[in-house]
Design a protein that fits this description.
This protein is of the alpha+beta class. It has 3 domains: about 90 residues, no CATH class; about 120 residues, Butyryl-CoA Dehydrogenase, subunit A, domain 2; about 140 residues, Up-down Bundle (Butyryl-CoA Dehydrogenase, subunit A, domain 3), CATH 1.20.140. The chain has 12 helices and 10 strands. The strands form 3 sheets. A 4-stranded mixed beta sheet has the order 3-6-7-10. A 4-stranded antiparallel beta sheet has the order 4-5-9-8, with no helix packed on it. It has a two-stranded antiparallel ribbon with strand order 1-2. Strand 4 and strand 5 form a beta hairpin. Helix 1 runs parallel beside helix 3 and helix 4 crosses helix 6.
């Protein structure tokens, strides 16, 4: 592994840092967050403004081709920018799905008219997209999508969408959504799918926010009640929706950075020094507490080394290996364990909100409510472990009884 920037990378890092210094406020603490007290709608609007600011400076989509308005940069440059931005107070990125998944898929498979209409407004934050993939019966196995797209029989050149999606991030704020729907149930499950885009304000689109334990509603249920979409809103060929979806999912590869918030184990150490142990002495003097701290340290350092190895591969123009799937399993559990540790150390006070305990408790509170969901999002722990077993360890694959079977024959 190479832990140092090359000369061009160091120059790009300096450019990013100088721009950020001129346009954002540097954090006073590593766990400081932007916009405490802002509502979700206000945070999304702040994210729109920040995305526009980045796009005008050339940092809005670093790896996109210049023809699409991007910088034409490398994945390593994207990582460098993210590392530098993480040291400044900026809004939470509401455009991760739009620019990291949907628009790359639309750019690769959509029509010239679709690219001309949608790429630039998304890049500059004027239009927000969501991705309508998961369903109540199709989460980790997206091949089981049951939302239907049926050809109109009334003379209109288009389709009627009927179905339900779930866990759709920012659907309540989105302008458009990319929908994966079944157009041919007589084909095997992955072969009968087609992608469309839908106006989230169109007749028949119903968004129901899912209230989380934290009180926020970042995710949503979306019901498509015979929503008409003209055939011009189809993305790619009929029954080629899985190919479009895989392009979107593969575009997530740059999310390898930022698995663990900076300074996590140091935060655990500080809490142990402050909190009393069972005998009144500081908790750090208790061997059982030190054991938990050591495990937190080893996990965070191991994940950092894995990220460094992936970044080295990117810097050499290589693709990171499938072992990065391990980062999701270990990372999500480490965040959850840190929250448990912090609550144990705080005792009864841990039940008090960050409004009373101060901003330093906000990050702990967020992890307490959100880390468990990370073990589900993007594939459950069990699904990812199967992937690691098959692709990394070379174990026999899971038995498949649905290959080549028409979807309508599957239970």
């Amino acid at each position: 592994m190479d832990f140092k920037d090359s000369t061009p990378e160091a120059a790009f890092r300096a450019k990013c840092r100088a721009w950020l210094e001129a346009n954002a406020e540097r954090k006073q603490r590593v766990d400081e967050l932007y916009g405490r007290g802002l509502g979700q709608a206000e945070m999304v609007e702040a994210s729109r403004a920040w995305q526009a600011c980045k796009a005008h400076a050339g940092f809005g989509a670093i790896t996109w081709d210049k023809a699409l308005g991007g910088l034409g940069g490398t994945p390593m440059q994207e990582m460098i920018y993210r590392e530098e931005e993480g040291q400044f107070l900026v809004p939470r990125n509401a455009f991760a799905v739009s620019l990291g998944m949907v628009i790359p898929a639309l750019a690769a498979h959509g029509s010239d008219a679709q690219r001309a209409r949608f790429v630039e407004p998304a890049l500059y934050g004027r239009e927000l997209w969501c991705q309508l993939l998961s369903e109540p019966d199709a989460g980790s196995d997206l091949g089981m999508v049951r939302t239907r797209a049926e050809r109109c029989t009334d003379g209109r050149d288009g389709w009627l969408l009927k179905g339900q999606k779930v866990w759709t991030t920012y659907a309540q704020f989105a302008d458009f959504g990319m929908v994966l729907a079944r157009t041919d149930p007589d084909k095997p499950k992955f072969d009968g799918l087609t992608c469309f885009y839908v106006d989230m304000h169109a007749a028949g689109v119903e968004v129901r926010p899912i209230r989380q334990a934290s009180g926020e509603a970042e995710f949503n249920e979306v019901f498509l009640n015979e929503v008409f979409v003209p055939d011009t809103q189809r993305i790619g060929e009929v029954c080629a929706g899985w190919k479009v979806t895989m392009t979107a999912l593969m575009s997530e590869r740059l999310s390898i950075g930022g698995v663990i918030p900076p300074g996590l184990w140091q935060r655990g150490l500080a809490l142990m020094r402050e909190a009393p142990g069972f005998d009144g002495a500081p908790a750090i003097e208790d061997g059982r507490m030190r054991e938990r701290l050591a495990e937190l340290y080893m996990n965070t350092q191991g994940l950092w080394l894995m990220q460094a190895r992936a970044l080295t591969a990117l810097g050499r123009g290589e693709a990171p290996g499938p072992e990065l799937s391990v980062a999701k399993i270990v990372g999500a559990r480490t965040l959850q364990d840190f929250a448990y540790l912090a609550f144990d150390l705080k005792g009864q006070q841990s039940m008090v909100t960050s409004e009373l305990l101060g901003d330093s408790w906000s990050n702990v509170e967020d992890l307490w409510f959100g880390a468990a969901g990370m073990r589900i999002a993007g594939g459950t722990d069990e699904i990812v472990k199967n992937s690691v077993g098959e692709r990394v360890l070379g174990l026999p694959g899971e038995p498949r009884t649905d290959k080549g079977i028409p979807f309508r024959e599957l239970s």
